[in-house]
Structure formats: structure tokens, C-alpha cells
Design goal:
9-stranded antiparallel beta sheet, 6-stranded antiparallel beta sheet, binds fe (ii) ion
Length: about 400
């Protein structure tokens, strides 16, 4: 991704001697993508970044999936996954539950109140959407503040942890989109050198990386690593390892480069509208290998005098479409049982569109007060254990007019 950033202390010339105030050498780490051939950053550690003293198996949560077969649209009620105060003992890493997934992406959900372990995902980038609540995300690059509506984008293998803010007696609700690849702004939004173009619905000023380095001390610090693997205990080619580091991994006095975590708030997405219905690509926010992320924000809607503001029925024949309903009142799903915290899955091989009563009800509307995050995948999605546990079985039949 992204434009060059520089935080803290870095030497004037890369790959040269760099010492702290006591004259000790700092340890330079290049963190880069695509085999030294894409975006990278150089980090300057106080301790040796590879110094581990132990490595054990980390038993991952249930990542098994089963196919959407017999094929049907699905409605999942993610808020049903939390009862009472059980969020208080849950953290954003060990307790995220798999809702659906395929070989390119996994979507998980957690309402968390507990500080997570130190963690890094070596499978791919994570894009964690904050449905509600807030948190501090400590990373090896520095600290991020996560608030409602933020996408927290964390590059592959970035060590971090989630610290929920629970002062208001509420959890932080996180919708975690884990890629097996990199997640970035769509290429068509960018110039050939990577600058956001004028037609893009957001730009560099809307992306918020850490402001300053985060330097901590400590010995024997445990980091959970999710990584590729096979054999006993592997789930869909994914395994976990619990590594213990000799010194604290958050010991970076400075870094620079184009690879780093950042937040982007959905309220900074400027909707693109038209006289007649605009297709989902105008709502796109990110892309990754074999899936895209779009958001449907509060916006003025179609202003042709005969416009039908809700979507036409569509067979998007190459995609499975997952909508996560975050806020407002989603116009095209009126009468379906869908509400805040719901997910709809509309699979390839099946035409979908508004509930019939929603079409007439939308005519003449000038504004939709709705917020939803959509993931469109190019390979079929399967249901995880949390998907099965939260399903509303009546949804598939909600278009038919039978009682
Ligand atoms: Fe759709």
C-alpha cells in the first residue's frame, strides 16, 4: 500500500551503523512483501528481533467449515453469539469465532473485554472492522486507536495485541476479515506511483498510521503466531505456534517505509451517487486476492424522477456476497428479519435482491440511513461453527409470499 511514513529515530542512511545513546548498536529489521520486491519498512530494534527461547504448539480455535449445501441464502445473527457479560473474559485473538471462510479469506466475530495475547497472523493481512466500542491496538510499529467504524488494517506478520476499552461497560465488537493475501486500496483508485486519484472515495489523509514508536521492556514475552502448516492439528492448512521471545518485541525506536498498520474510518468514505442505481464497485474500499471489501454508507440516493433506489435483483455469477449490517435501517432488507449485527450470505448460483415490499417502500426516498460492510468473494464461502450457531433458518424463504 501506501505512502511513505517515518516515525521515531532512524539513521540517515539505510543499512548503516545506528547506535543508541549508550553507544550500543541497534538491530535493523526489514519487513517486506513479495520477496524484497514490494512495499517494505525498516525497523530499528533495541533487542535482537529473532531471539526466541521457546516454541510450543498453540491450539487454534475451531477453524473447520462446511459447505453451503443444499445451496441457500443465509441470515446469521452475530449478536446471538454473546450472552450476558460473557464478553468480559473474551479477547480479540483466542475468542474470535469463525463465521465463514474459504481458501482466500476467513470472517470471524468477537465481542471482547479482555486484553488479548501478543499475536501475529503470518497467513495474511487482517482488516478488522470495529462495529462498536473502542480499543487500543499496540503494534510493533506503534499504537493505533480503534473506534466505531474503523477498519484496522494490520499487515501480515505484524506483532500486535488488542486492549479493549471497557469503561462504559460495553465490549469492543470486532468483525475480523483475515486474508490469505494482502489487503490494500483498489488499484484503480491509485496513480501508477501509488497516490490516491481524485475520483477515489478516500485519500491518504483518511488513513491513520501510528503516531509514535511504542517502546516497552520485558523478558520472556509470549507471542501467538498463526501460520501455514499441515499435519496433526492443522485446520485448512493453518496451524498455531506459541513463541517466547527473550526480550519484548515492542522495542522499536524508529521505522520508516510504506508497510505499516493503519486505521480508516468508514465515515471518511465519500459515497459516489447517481441519478439511477450505482453498482457495488462504487462502494469498494479494499481489495485482496480473490475478494473485495465494500461499504454501504449513509448517502443521498438516486435522483432520477422514476428511480428505484433499492438494487435490482442480481446474479453476480462469479461471487458469494456477505453483508454485515452495522447501523441504520437497511432499506432493501426490510421485512426479512435482518437487523443490526446481522449477516446475509447470498451465494453465487442464486439471484438475490430486495424483499418485494422493500421496492415499493423505497420509491421517492432521497436518503438511505444505512451502514453495512460487504465482502464479495470469488470462491464459494463455507460456514464456520459461529455461522451455524447463529443462523436464522427462516431467511431463505423470506422472498416468497407464502405465509
Ligand atoms: Fe447483492
Amino acid at each position: 500500500m501506501a505512502h511513505y511514513q517515518r516515525l521515531g529515530d532512524v539513521p540517515p542512511k539505510r543499512h548503516t551503523q545506528f547506535r543508541n545513546e549508550r553507544g550500543s548498536l541497534l538491530y535493523e529489521e526489514l519487513m517486506g512483501e513479495e520477496g524484497f520486491s514490494s512495499d517494505a519498512s525498516l525497523l530499528y530494534h533495541r533487542g535482537v528481533p529473532s531471539a526466541i527461547v521457546d516454541s510450543q504448539v498453540w491450539e487454534l480455535p475451531d477453524l473447520m467449515t462446511h459447505p453451503n449445501h443444499p445451496l441457500k441464502p443465509r441470515h446469521l445473527k452475530l449478536h446471538d453469539l454473546t450472552t450476558g457479560q460473557d464478553w468480559k473474559s473474551r479477547d480479540a485473538v483466542n475468542d474470535r469465532r469463525l463465521v465463514m471462510g474459504n481458501g482466500d479469506v476467513r470472517i470471524s466475530y468477537v465481542a471482547a473485554g479482555e486484553v488479548s495475547p501478543y499475536y501475529r497472523n503470518a497467513i495474511g493481512d487482517e482488516c478488522v472492522f470495529v462495529e462498536s466500542g473502542s480499543a487500543t491496538v499496540e503494534t510493533v510499529f506503534g499504537q493505533l486507536k480503534a473506534k466505531p467504524g474503523d477498519y484496522v488494517v494490520i499487515p501480515r506478520a505484524s506483532t500486535h495485541r488488542w486492549i479493549p476499552h471497557t469503561d462504559a461497560g460495553q465490549p469492543v465488537r470486532l468483525y475480523a476479515i483475515e486474508a490469505n493475501s494482502h489487503i490494500s486500496p483498489p488499484k484503480r483508485y491509485l496513480s501508477r506511483f501509488g497516490q490516491f486519484l481524485e475520483h477515489a472515495p478516500y485519500c491518504e489523509r483518511d488513513l491513520h498510521p501510528p503516531h509514535e514508536p511504542l517502546v516497552q521492556t520485558g523478558d520472556d514475552v509470549e507471542v501467538l503466531v498463526k501460520h501455514r502448516g499441515s499435519g496433526p492439528g492443522a485446520q485448512a492448512g493453518i496451524v498455531g505456534t506459541r513463541m517466547t521471545y527473550s526480550t519484548h518485541p515492542f522495542d522499536v525506536v524508529g521505522w520508516d517505509g510504506c508497510l505499516y498498520p493503519y486505521t480508516f474510518n468508514v465515515s471518511d468514505f465519500e459515497p459516489i451517487t447517481g441519478r439511477i442505481h450505482q453498482p457495488p464497485p462504487v462502494h469498494q474500499v479494499f481489495e485482496a486476492a480473490n475478494f473485495v471489501v465494500c461499504n454501504f454508507c449513509p448517502r443521498k440516493v438516486d435522483y432520477h424522477p422514476l428511480a428505484v433506489p433499492v438494487p435490482y435483483y442480481h446474479s453476480n455469477v462469479d461471487s458469494d456476497e456477505v453483508m454485515f449490517y452495522v447501523a441504520g435501517d437497511y432499506e432493501s432488507r426490510k421485512g426479512s428479519g435482518i437487523g443490526i449485527g446481522s449477516i446475509s450470505l447470498h451465494p453465487g448460483g442464486y439471484a438475490h435482491g430486495p424483499q418485494p415490499s422493500a421496492i415499493e417502500a423505497s420509491l421517492g426516498k432521497e436518503y438511505f440511513d444505512e451502514l453495512a460492510v460487504m465482502v464479495d468473494t470469488f470462491r464459494p464461502l463455507e460456514l464456520g461453527e459461529a455461522g451455524t450457531a447463529s443462523e436464522d433458518e427462516a431467511y431463505a424463504w423470506s422472498w416468497a409470499t407464502r405465509p
